[in-house]
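Tutorial, part two.
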Amino acid sequence: MAKTGVRARPGAKSSRSRSGWQAVGRKRQGPSQTSLAVAWLTRLETAGLWLVVVTLGICVWLAAGRSAGPIDGLVDTFGLLFFALAALLALTGVLLWRRDLGMLLRYPRPALISIPTFFFVAGILGLFKPDIDLGGSSLTEVTAGGDFGLFLTDSALGVLLWVASGSAIIIFVWPDGTRSAIEGTPGAMATVWSWRIPHRILSGFAMIVDFAFPTKPPPDEALESAPTWLPEEDEFEDEPVALPVSVLTETEPEIPDARLSQAQLPVNWWAPEHVEDEAEAPVAAKAASPWKLPPMDLLAGAPPADESARPDNNLRASLIVDTLSSFGVDARVAQFHEGPVVTQFDVEPGWEVKYKQIAERDRDGKPILDKDGKPRIRQEEVSRTRVRVNQITSLSNDLALALAAPSLRIEAPVPGRSVVGIEVPNSSASVVTLRSVIETPAFQRLASRTKLALPLGKSVSGEAVVADLAKMPHLLIAGATGSGKSVAINSIIASLLMQSEPEDVRFVMIDPKRVELAAFSMIPHLAFSSIVVDVEKVVGTLGAVLHEMEARYKRFASLAVRNIDSYNKHPKITQRMPYWVVIIDELADLMMAAPFEVERQICRLAQLARATGIHLIVATQRPSVDVVTGLIKANFPTRIAFAMTSQVDSRTILDMAGAERLLGRGDMLYMPTDSSKPKRVQGVYLSDQEIDRLVAFWAQQRTSHSTLIYDHLLDAAQAEIEEDEDADPMYDKAKALAEEHSRLSTSMLQRRLRIGYPRAARIMDRLEEEGIVGGGGSRGSSREVLDRDDDDDDAGDDSPGFVPPRHNPWQD
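Running the prediction step on this input gives:
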């Protein structure tokens, strides 16, 4: 353990031993009491304190209705706003008392807002004449805002100044909304705003203020004001010194990411000292995107941790060791890692030592006797072997009983470490918010390299777990109802919305439940005009995505590139190709409706769509073998398993048990492509309010910026489906099946022809149109075959022949 105390340098002598004790007994010559009083009265802090006291006294005096001489003139001029001026003086006194007048320069925004607010409130007060005596003045003779408020309401210039102050308040308080509203307004207002006259006026005013009140010291002063607390070279020679991040990054300014919008860039980062080549600056300005990325304030921060609910991990570690020892297993807890939901204890297996008893003998070979006359016996070690891992894993239920835990998960061994991990649930789980993971350095590094960075959650040790969807390249999510599957999908969508523009990422959302993804219906990132909620349209939607994939491969071949990254970097490309993320919320509903078509299309996309930038995220709450087939699972190497109801479901999705022991509410096992064992992760939580704020932010920009909609792909895919229906080879088989039976149903066509429900229903409708089967009653009921045998019909007679009913032996 690293020492926290300060170590003294060898050879250094105490200054107290030299001169401190020699000064004992001497009389110190201090200043007189009069000089101390004069010095205290002339201090800056005392002046500020007196200013506060005098201001409060004047306010009390005027409120009592007593005349204050020259102060009455200010009351006649400003009315009740005199108290606002008094509050400003009192604030100045407080800043003088604290010697912190620089706060006005550090926070200029409130000071700028207070000026138009003063004018606007004065105009409002100028509309009233209350019967109030303030000092020696009566507000009935003037107004509540004094003569100044009367000027703002009676004169044309005053009214113009009043309206301008109200507009300035709106601009200062809500700048983004004002800009979006004006830019979206047609006519002269948007044209004037495009001239950027207000921007130039404010920029000039900011340059004047910065010149008069510089906030950055000159380079020489900045070097002189560097921290002087750093240790000398000869101090702490054997210990490295860890400098703060602010000191390490102070000399080299960080260049902002090119993907950030203009509103997210640091202030004045475009100054000449940051531009190496002046000729490149206009090019960067032309490439600026009209879209603005959401601010981080839209997401909720991490709630404060409840220190009183933290478990005593040292006590639990001793209970683990004692429980294993009581069953004859030698082990020790090397360390523990406390996570948001569980704590992982690293258990090192001990040794199994076997001894044998040997009688001690002397040099002559005679046994040595003890004081009781018995041969002296000693034990000698015969063998030493490691404790087997299965001896620890087989005691999971006993450990759960000793720790009073609902369930335990034992990871044997922990990847990368020669220990056995025992994961014990905490007494109280802490919430992992989306913002807490996005703000971590691990996610920021990944987001700087890719546009498809996903914040999955935090591991059992509290470290952020992030992944790149482009490298997955597809994701399969499974979990029981209430385990956190839908929240995980929402957090994935929200994370992509936080870092990507519509020109970078597009979504294709398929939601058979109709309510899980409905909150994202207004974002401009949708590839199609709406979210697909009808099961009958799923086959056409996936067919449209396949058409887009094939079209992208043709573009790649024309430019001799291999993938989407090479295509976007090609010099002939003027418009970047966006990534497509296809999200299917419930695979089980689709597999029940059209199992063969959906499986074929999903597998084809999973096999070929990676190079074109199309990625799949498929979720289901019933991971049975008829839903997650072997072909689908083989094309989805990256999987996430939430809490399962049985071990069979866990083996279906992960090929191993363990998901049935999860705690739910975001507790998951993440199986990446580069690992043979899953990682336990607590998924991020995203509330409905955060989703609403994020969607409202993008919906506001959707009204002022246009995006390309790919509905023409849906029309082409639907036309292709209709052509396939006309030339459907299954139709002839259905006619042959109708000749063999007296009644026919849609479910029979599904079973006998091995097709999905939409296709079987279309074939049944076509049989009805051609007069082969009769009209159906309720949905799914069987229909009577009208034209069972053409030979029984008379020649030239179009009416169907008589079909005798089949004999039922159970009626005899």
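The chain has a mean pLDDT of 76. In part three we will examine how such features are distributed along the chain.
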